[in-house]
């Protein structure tokens, strides 16, 4: 194919659209960041002067330490449990053909396809009925609903790429089932498990709806606390809400940087086979 | 082990049933207990309202225009947003499917809004698109508008928030579908005399179409559950009163669990109808290998 | 591992759904034997090997080691070693740890395990690669690791599943000799699966020829080579000319060939029966005065020419000769009666 030196009008339009999108994105994030440092910012391009006091205020006003602790705890529990539950299931689904396998696959796909609010409301009702909602346990349970299937979907390709004859070879060397899992599969699956759990953490930190519906005052995660402080706008200074948003933002970006060491950006979105470039 | 039980085990093993399947049990129990059971419970609750017959909650939902119209409102927001995201993603992804410097950086930046989520995007949009925000300042100072354009607390605020989180999602999906199509197919078409447009519309697009349908579905699911942005940057009592707001209000403001469950079930049903229409259309398309022969 | 005197397969059968992959395999393997399971792809040879290994449960039949029933044991407790077609090395373990894995699983004391591992690595000439990961080795070296890993535990039986099919032609010949040498020097009992008849003939003490899940013939390489039990074995063993015909008197009439020929009948043939006459290309003789054929294609094979020829009646034959032939040449050929095997069709 010919390689054109001069960009075509089509290319200009495409790059223009991308530029507009990035400008919007920069504006959205930038205005939050600038506002969180601003002293007085009304009808001007930039605030009159800058300060970091809003961060201190946000930290105490919104009791961010317990909120962050809860967020961290919820994420670790959700990631840990969903890996423990999801990986064995992913193994069987990836390796075996059995009657009802397709149905089970669909069952694990549904929680990802459904909007969280749809099943979140009945789920919260059930959790309240058993006295679990309003506590950490309820939040963790609710977040497990999309996480377990997500781990299964993420792990399946990792498991599929491990040659099954390696397991057979281990058996022929005299390895019992637990040795096959412990000495052969586990070391080979470590990268996949890391990727899956970091993705679950990212999704759980960002998961608003389910946590919102099941959290009590002591079990809010950061994103829910942010929502409450935003919808109660006017009570607190907008800047300290923005300071909290920046804290959330930074936390997410750190996680994202960590995540991208283990996974491909596309995997954050969905499970699609990467091209072997 | 007796020969009879052995034989029975062998017969089961031939059909793929053996003790290894026990590994599926924890995950299945989780999904059944935390997803299927609540769903059935929700259906049961929605059929047992405080007063009226079994279908009273649904009847109330569909006779009250304030509730019924939320369906149309939700679709009026989510369908255009999903469609826009997918349609905008195609030319951009097509242009960027090859390898070029900075591609990874580009995808990383695109993942940022997805990871930040709707709540933060809403906060940013309030600042950015607000009457004194940077966007309106640019419009005013360049003379494109003579007074601030209202883009928050209405339909457009929600729409923009869905584009900011939904477009990168659609783009990354379309890009990975596109890169799954063997580039030598287009080269083959070029050697047969097909021009740029013919190559795209006759070769690439038909192979991409099923992927686009899937992308549309996933983007639609994302847009369909606009809850936080509808409340924060939208007009939750008017133009952006979506079903999820109605369901939430019923449950947490009026404590009418039958009505809330009914709204949630209606929401799920509407979503499934849209998805099955799209997937039904998708099944009419060619869905097979996109490699050009031997892999 | 304890050795055995005989290992007996008794009507071993494996079905996949409705399809029979292996039907009623009876075989007795004596200690020290090298048995090749031979057949085209899909003949059930790998199924047989996996059943023997315990990687596939039997649908029917049983396997006995001397007096003990074996098919109820899981693979890890049968004490066999196995070499896989794609080697199946553990990618995260070094060569040394790959080889030592089986000893570790058997709880062999550390010092002894180390000594045996080093011995096995030396046996396959990989001393300087012992610390490397499998991914850093060439195909031939990986093959050697797989063999060392299988034999280090001194298994009572070594199973090999087409171990040479992923190697290039030259390496394949070298490894063939190597495997046979190891078999003899270590006193192994080996069951070797292959689709390459030359490989099977050159390595094995006995061949088991399979087709569509059924045993066609069990015999020494010479028996199988010179006296295939039926037309399918003949086809597989290089009898490229398979000529349908009919038995008449004490001769055979081959369709599309004007003359009657005599041959050696294998199996019961009655007068008037349809038959298949089989002869190898190298057994077709060029003789002036034989029936006339025209050369259609001639392939150069070094000292020989492989030619496709056609008789005046339109019958196609393959032959090999040291005589120089060119397309269009007319020559006379002869089918020697002792080399022309006639099977019931």
UniProtKB/TrEMBL annotation, chain A:
Residues 68-259 form the ABC transmembrane type-1 domain. SUPFAM superfamilies: MetI-like. The keyword Lipid biosynthesis does not apply. InterPro entries: MetI-like, MetI-like_sf. It comes from the Bacteria. It holds the Pfam family BPD_transp_1. It is a multi-pass membrane protein. The chain crosses the membrane at residues 12-42, 62-94, 106-128, 140-159, 180-202, 245-263. GO terms for biological process: transmembrane transport. GO terms for cellular component: plasma membrane. It is found in: Cell inner membrane; Cell membrane. Its main location: membrane. Keywords: Cell inner membrane, Cell membrane, Membrane, Transmembrane, Transmembrane helix, Transport. PROSITE patterns: ABC_TM1. Belongs to the binding-protein-dependent transport system permease family. PANTHER family: INNER MEMBRANE ABC TRANSPORTER PERMEASE PROTEIN YDCV. This is Spermidine/putrescine ABC transporter permease. The lineage of its organism: Bacteria, Bacillati, Actinomycetota, Actinomycetes, Micromonosporales.
TrEMBL record, chain B:
Gene3D superfamilies: MetI-like. It is found in: Cell membrane. It comes from Actinoplanes siamensis. The keyword Iron-sulfur does not apply. Keywords: Cell membrane, Membrane, Transmembrane, Transmembrane helix, Transport. It is a multi-pass membrane protein. The keyword Nucleotide-binding does not apply. PANTHER family: INNER MEMBRANE ABC TRANSPORTER PERMEASE PROTEIN YDCU-RELATED, INNER MEMBRANE ABC TRANSPORTER PERMEASE PROTEIN YDCU-RELATED-RELATED. Residues 71-278 form the ABC transmembrane type-1 domain. The chain crosses the membrane at residues 21-44, 71-93, 105-129, 155-178, 207-227, 257-281. InterPro entries: MetI-like (IPR000515), MetI-like_sf (IPR035906). One of its GO terms (cellular component) is plasma membrane. SUPFAM superfamilies: MetI-like (SSF161098). This is ABC transporter permease. Belongs to the binding-protein-dependent transport system permease family. CysTW subfamily. GO terms for biological process: transmembrane transport. It comes from the Bacteria.
Automatic annotation (TrEMBL), chain C:
Residues 7-237 form the ABC transporter domain. It comes from the Bacteria. InterPro entries: AAA+_ATPase, ABC_SmlMolc_Importer, ABC_transporter-like_ATP-bd, ABC_transporter-like_CS, Mo/tungstate-bd_C_term_dom, NA-bd_OB-fold, P-loop_NTPase, Transp-assoc_OB_typ2. The keyword Nucleotide-binding applies. SMART domains: AAA (SM00382). PROSITE patterns: ABC_TRANSPORTER_1, ABC_TRANSPORTER_2. The keyword Protein biosynthesis does not apply. Pfam families: ABC_tran, TOBE_2. One of its GO terms (cellular component) is ATP-binding cassette (ABC) transporter complex. PANTHER family: SPERMIDINE/PUTRESCINE IMPORT ATP-BINDING PROTEIN POTA (PTHR42781), SPERMIDINE_PUTRESCINE IMPORT ATP-BINDING PROTEIN POTA (PTHR42781:SF4). This is ABC transporter ATP-binding protein. It comes from Actinoplanes siamensis.
